[in-house]
Write a structure and sequence with these properties.
mainly alpha; globular; 299 residues; membrane; two-stranded antiparallel sheet
Length: 299
Amino acid sequence: MSGVGARREVDDLEANKPLRGGGGGWGGRHEDDRDGFVPTAEPVGGTGYSTGYATAPLGGGAGGMAGNEDVRFAEAIDAYDVAVRHGFVRKVFGILFVQLAVTFGWTLFCSLHAGARQYMQQNSGVPATLGLVLPLGSLLGLMCCGDGGRRYPLNYILLSVLTVGESLLLGLVAATTEAETVAMAVGTTVAVVGMLGLFATQTKYDFTGAGPYLSMALWVMVLYALIGGLFGLGGGRVYAIFGTLLFSAYLIYDVQLIVGGKHTKFAFGVDDYVLASISVYLDVINIFLYILELMNDRN
């Protein structure tokens, strides 16, 4: 479940969300209505002027003062939007930090602690089963409960269930892999994720419109995995490299959806902090697994 299947479930969940929300905020990912907007006045019905955000007549007098007030109001709205988005970003990455600390803490513990390592190897059925059932149940809960990803405390419960399941599965993988390889893979993942996150927030390029192309590549991986399972074909090094590159691209895509700002073709709504943190969390987990596979192959 920590592979391409979980990512596909999240893509399906995100695709079912409306592009624009109403009322209290934006719903799911939205197209920014302000893209390409030029604040010029257009006559409406012969009297008055209407613009998208502010009416700014060039003349003085009462019309000029009204225009200035509208401009100040638009600036205040923009400042409020920025403050809300910053709060959303802090919340998402705070949740993500806790998820990753729990998951990789447990992974390293199962890899480095002899007793935990032995227990996981001798009782592999339990963590393997829970590692598949819990994340799947959590993602199905998010998909089937409508606004379950936004409703407190249900959203945190589903998030915790998914994190526990993924942690158990990664702990089992770590317990059956050389400790040195696991430690190197964790360190490499931290470095790669840090650089990709920095690139996603600093680049001038907007990757938030790449969702359909990433989903198509993900489906190719899913189909190849299914066919390979039927005919006994292993993934191999090429599959692992492709997986690493794909989920690296997904990480850039998801980070830009969270941060917003100049990357505004699409964005997560501020109420979707759980879905946003799950998306990045699964990207990081998949990057780690493919890096671990590549290092294990080398050894």
